[in-house]
Amino acid sequence: MNANDLDKAFKPTPYIFTETLNKTLHGLEEVPTMKKITTRTVLIVALITALTLGIVYAAVSYGQQWYYETRFTAFEEHRPDVYKEVIKALDNNIKQENIGDGAKVVDFKVEDSAWVENSDIFTLSFTAKAVDEVENELHGMMEMDVDGEDREEHWLWTKKGCGVPKDVMEDPNKQLILIDVFSYENGLKIGNSGVELPISSYDVFTDEEGVVFIQVEANLDYIKKDKNISNAINETLKDSMLMLKMLYQVYYFKDNAFVNPVEGELIFEVKVK
Amino acid sequence: MNKEFFTKEVLAMERSLYRIAISYVGQDADACDAVQQALLKAWNKRYSLRELKYFRTWLIRILINCCKNMLKLKKREVLVLDVETIANNKNSEQNYELYKALNTLNEKHRIVLLLHYLEGYKIEEIASILHIPAGTVKSRLNKARKDIKIILEEELS
Hints:
The complex is a heterodimer of chains A (about 270) and B (about 160).
Chain A (H helix, E strand, L loop, with lengths): L2 H6 L6 H13 L11 H15 L10 H7 L3 H5 L1 H10 L6 E5 L1 H4 E11 L4 E10 L5 E5 L15 E3 L2 E3 L1 H4 L6 E6 L7 E3 L10 E6 L5 E8 H6 L1 H10 L4 E14 L2 E15 L2
Parallel strand pairs in A: 4-7
Antiparallel strand pairs in A: 1-12, 2-3, 3-10, 5-6, 7-11, 8-11, 9-10, 11-12
Chain B lengths: L2 H10 L1 H12 L2 H17 L10 H19 L9 H6 L7 H9 L2 H12 L4 H8 L3 H23 L1
Helix pairs in contact in B: 2-3, 2-4, 2-7, 3-4, 4-8, 6-9, 7-9, 8-9
């Protein structure tokens, strides 16, 4: 048996595969190394500040400003101009609807969006919370097996560390549920066109309050150059508002397996400037 | 690791990535999804790779995990050979008998065979990619060779 024989067992690499590879590579953003401050550090600093000033702690206001100030400070440090434009363009008045069986399990919503033509960047932030927080503990599917290691058991990454879910969950007596976004058919779709709006980077994590936060970036330069995508945008755009749809699944984690998936869809409109 | 290095390496691995993905997930659309996920995951985690010389084995490991997770999530019990798709896309360059024989192999044996004979990885490198002992790689390779020989002989007779 030689490599030639074996290679002939496979058909030639299809065009769609090459195109997917090229599109994904083209969309990658050369963003500086993530410098993540631990949530614990943030909370301690916030607590000390609050005590010093005699301010009562208020609930976290989620959104991209919170994310860029606490989780991904490298953006402001390394691309200050783009950062300022994104913050300036932030729109948190999002018309949206969370539908399907997934909506009964997870309160999933868009926090804010920023479409910045000048810097060729489109950013979005989402939050998801378990509807039944007494019974369920929600995490992002991307927090599962995030190190790429192959193990017999699935490992979850949480603020407690990385390990089998029962060891690192906030409350192992609760049912672990996982929200799966941006995989398979779950990408951002432009209106009813079925055309995907490709993303260039994302971050998914669960914070101290049990909220799954998702931050997404897309490269507008790439989107503008792709006729199929830009046509779909132009056909969907109405009064500077662009309808986007995002399919997602929520899985129950039982006996080291992802079971009983329920599907939901988030339909929302972002302001395109 | 910068984008230039990442892109150059990935483009050089295109055929390998396709063969590995398709041998796990069986269909082009799923292979595309798996490789897209693997590339985004690898790019987002690129700073965790300390030595660039291991880039290819590292990316293959990530791709294999994406394929496995995809199969788990889609609740496929076994890789299903899509005969209808093959029939509709018949290409004179493809050896369907060998393809079918490969797909008859157990997933663990198939991937070891492909990584060794097709992608040219040594036993130790495959052990590192799959996180299994070198001895296990050898025994799986041996079993895969025997099985595929039997399958092909049966088909020919």
